[in-house]
Sequence to fold (146 residues):
Amino acid sequence: MAMSLGSGGGQNASMNVTPLIDVLLVLLIIFMVIQPTTTHGLDALVPQPPPPNQPQQTDINRTIVVQVIDKGPGNQPALKINTDDQSWGGLQDRLTDIFKTRAEKVMFVKGDDNVPFADVATVIDIAHAAGVDKVGLMTAKVEAGQ
Fold:
């Protein structure tokens, strides 16, 4: 910082940057405080493949997988609960019947590659309305154990 002592021949135009730095530090602190620390989105639960040296044990009555199957462009996707065909209108009632006696309310959704995610999100919303606590998303890689 420059400082003028005495009459050196006129005005000296030196800028004092201390208030500018103070303002910048205050703004930095304000932006750090208001920065959100949590992310918002859908919780995803991914099924883990079994260890390779153990025989695979499947409990068909325990695991519920809702499949969203592509029927081509312009058609509404078809639904299956495990291996049973299901209509869109009766999905919530069927899921309510399945999960009303269960303590562990976990379900998986598997969508075809060409199905819009909006249809998968609709199935997730219907599942939450039916009382399902956790909804996991299945992909082809997870199913193959990769």
Remarks:
- The first strand starts at residue 65 and ends at 69.
- The chain has a mean pLDDT of 81.
